Amino acid sequence: MITQKIAPDVTTIPDSDGGRDWPVLVAERVSTAQAVRDTLTLARRGLLRMRHTPQQLFDVIIVPVVFTIMFANIFGGAIAGDVSAYLPELVPGVLVSVAITSSVVTGVQLREDIDSGVFDRLVSMPISRMAPLAGSLTADILRYVIATTMSLVVGLVMGYRPGSIVGTAAGIVLVIFAAFAMSWIFALMGVIMSKASAVQGISMLILMPLTFTSNAFVPTSTMPGWLQAIADVNPVSHLVSSFRSLANDGEITAHVGWTLLGATAIIAVAAPLALRAYLRRV
Questions:
Q1: Which terminus of the chain faces fewer neighbouring Cβ atoms within 10 Å, N or C?
Q2: Residues with Cβ < 8 Å from 108, sequence gap 6 or more?
Q3: Contact in structure between 274 and 187 (CB atoms under 8 Å)
Q4: Which of helix, strand or coil describes residue 24?
Q5: 55 CB contacts (<8 Å, ≥6 apart)?
Q6: Any idea what the Cα angle at residue 58 is, between residues 278 and 65, rounded to 5°?
Q7: Is 50 exceeded by the pLDDT of residue 249?
Q8: Contacts of 272 (CB under 8 A, 6+ apart)
Q9: Whole-angstrom Cα distance, residue 232 to residue 126?
Q10: How far is the C-alpha of 140 from the C-alpha of 192, rounded, in Å?
Q11: Are 150 and 64 in contact (CB under 8 A)?
Q12: What is the mean pLDDT of the segment spanning 159-182?
């Protein structure tokens, strides 16, 4: 794959009137290896930003603790009879919801970088044009790792015991992949929308119904018939069911296949759209 540079070399062409030479930008191409290096360099920038502003990780560190403790004690007795019996259902639901919700930050921070002029500065640098966007999304993978790890750790402290260690690890990888796929949707929104607050507001308007009309916190059998039909085809339900089957039973079910298919389809559609919208800006 060949990628165009943001800032090509500069040459000069003599003025026809005999005046001072004026610069002309000459387009260059960079190799795939160079594009990957540029992406990783800008991903490191994103990681350093998290290091210097750790409050950006508030949602993936504190929210899993609050959600798990609160939902376990509120819904545990009503749904499963007691808290310990509810944890095998709750912990996967919290883990998925926190990871998916944290992908919204990708679009919000992308919009903030554009508004603050950071991306305008990157335009003048001799790097791959796609590197700023791809680097930002790559750095946010750390957020998903922290979100899933914190959710699992809180569950373990409260008494959750997964049935398969290998299955749990595979489930975490699957959730991270799904969150990364979702981040491309919010990256697209970050590029085309005019304000970071609009990105956050609309993103949450999309994710809240998806999360709470799924099987993340309650069995779909307790829902009205029309809502149960929606919940059964909800992609969040497939992701939660995938993690439950992998972690609790060590089994690969059809939900895993549907989740992989859905996440791949999202990347295949949203990634080119986000890159096209972004490249129009630069």
A1: N
A2: 186, 190, 196, 199, 200, 203
A3: yes
A4: strand
A5: none
A6: 130
A7: yes
A8: none
A9: 48
A10: 20
A11: yes
A12: 95
* Per-residue three-class SS string for 111-165: HHHHHHCHHHHHHCCCCECCHHHHHHHHHCHHHHHHHHHHHHHHHHHHCCCCCCH
Q: What's at 235, amino acid-wise? A: P
Chain mean position to CA 253: 24
Structure tokens at 5: 């540079």
**Identity of the residue numbered 134:** A
* The two structure tokens encoding residue 38: 């540029």
For residue 137, give the amino acid letter.
L
Give 210-235 pLDDT, tens digit per residue: 998 999 998 888 889 899 999 999 99
Give the Cα separation of 186 and 237 in Å (integer): 20
